[in-house]
Amino acid sequence: MSTTRRRFITQAGLGTAALLAEGGVRRAAADKPLNFAGWVFKPDTVKDYVEFYNKKFSGQVKYEAIPWAQYHPTMETRAFANEIVDVMYCNHNNRERWFENGLIRAIDDLPGADELKKKMAPANLDSLKSKDGSKVLGLPYFTSLFILIYNEPMLQAAGIKAPAKSWDELVEHCTKLKRDKASDTPFLPNWNNSPSGTMPQFMTDCFSEGAQVFDAKNRVIVDQEPGAAKAMERWQKVYKAGLVNPEVLTKTSSTDTHRLFWTGRYAYHTNHSYYLKTIAGEPENSKLAPKKAKMAMYPGTGQTYMWTDSYVVNAKTKVLDDAWKLVRFLGGNLNGDWYVQRQWCLISGLDNPYPEMYDHPEIIKSYDGWIDLKLLREQYKKGKVIAAYKEPWYSEYDTKAVPIVHNMIRGTLPVGQGLKDIVKLQRSLA
Amino acid sequence: MIPALTIVSAVVAFPLVYSLWMSLADVNLLKTTGPAIELFGLRIPLFRFVGEANYARIFADPLYWGSVGRSLYFVAAFVIEATLVGLGMALVLQERFAGRTLMRSLLLIPWSLSRVVVGLLWIGLLDFEFGALNAALHRAGLIDTYIAFFKEGFTALNVLVSVYMWNQAPFATLLFLAGMQSIPVELHLAAEVDGAGYWQRLRYVTLPALRPILFLVLVLATVNGFLMLDLIYILTMGGPGYDTTTISWLGFQTAFNFFKFGPGAAILYTLTAFCLVLTFVYRFLMFRREAAA
Question: For chain A, what is the domain count?
């Protein structure tokens, strides 16, 4: 049975009661309130974590959820107004800028940070480091990567015994399914128009074709990479053949995109790993639950784009000890308990960069309800992080490259020219 | 007088002047050291003055001019649609018929909805995968395959125009209705006595009397058209490609996605300039005869 919010509250309440009964909690109340802000993702669940923390550690944490679109600008305007939000979420694209501009501090010198760093997968740790690699800027909120999801009943009904292992095979399957009228648009790539869509998917498919997107100096080099051209030609081909829902280009989020797969009308989908939790694990929402949608190893080299979002500490916090304690509770193992990290796995399938977590029987059992955990761990071994998002130009590049990629997909821009335009764009911003 | 002036300055003038200043400065909200002014105990950083550099930069960007073109198209189409539909509905609702009061009340529903709700509602109607309109057309045998309304950029832009018109035309109707009710009944009666039919009365009595209201509707529709942002956010995010990227969306992205508040403010100030210019054009075209007299 998957963990629900109700169950979580019950467990949290029982846990707290037990600890209090045993006198196991040192009731050293925090002197000052601590402000904590994050973007909206299951805010009720986060509120539960905060209430649990406040009870267990006699904290005075005030939590606030801000809509995703305004989250980072809001944090900046608050900093501009000299308001101190002690602990914040920060996505990977903004972390370096916040650090360079003095909004957040590194965590290396804080107690227990070294142990947590040792427990993290090296690629994720790199991802959390400053541009020069000398400092770690936060603890992980979650990590994820792109995976390939397939609709098993649809493939079986069409006589396709196993999911595609190569891109050619995937295109072949989709062509057959469309021809047989099993699906109007069998392929659902995450080409949505948000920062979590087209460009991460572009990098993923370049990696899977063995192409690099950035060189060691973080310059875009896709015009020199045959794999990038191959990926774009494939995208153009599947779009032209009508294998893809044409409106995916104007979907506004990866969440909206993955919900299309709930309908059971698509054969293949590429998206962030945690979305399989709702697709294959929520029968109340998805026609492909329980476990009718499955994960397959990403085709080609198997490499996919991986990223890590984080909890960060405000550089001006006046309650550093309390802020760090909360960050360890959220993104680490305060008092040896991976509480929040574990709950995110159980509730939402949000992964974390601590491999030891995945030996926990509760997590193994929960993941078994929606994904092949062993295969997911294998996929993570092929997860590829980039460092380019630490560059000041990255957000603008990442947004402005989307229309170029869309024009290549739609065939209004030849692939060779489009890839050159992406390079030109990056050079103009750097 | 002084308290009133103080409030107006604080609420209107200061943000206006400060944002204009930002369009001429190198703004980084996280770096607020350097020159500043103190207002009521608040430190307001002035940032580094860069003169016209932000404007020069956006004017040199082909994306900006593409966005200007799309904005002008959007505004023109929206103003025409909203004005004609608004006027048409007002003429209908001016007539006496059973249920007129109810119709007048229902009319305001689209206008009173939040634009986010409007966007989501129209996604529900137009979506390629689960849109109710596609399903209805398919069931009626009018289409074989579902229509992708947002596939082609120009179509997507026109869908945005129509959705926004649906949302805003009721307000124009309301203004036109108010204008119609202020026309003395005697004018219509006199025209009838002179043998004027419905269309003649509309042309020679109603429309001339509505000119000040028409001016108001045109100005409001123009300003609202240029400022429209939320429907783009909900329906297309400026795509596919750049095909629904307007100046307001570009300004929003530049300021809040790229954190380039200087160029972002510059883009949005050019939008203000477009609104002002068009307001003067409307005024000139509509009232030139009166001015000449």
Answer: 2
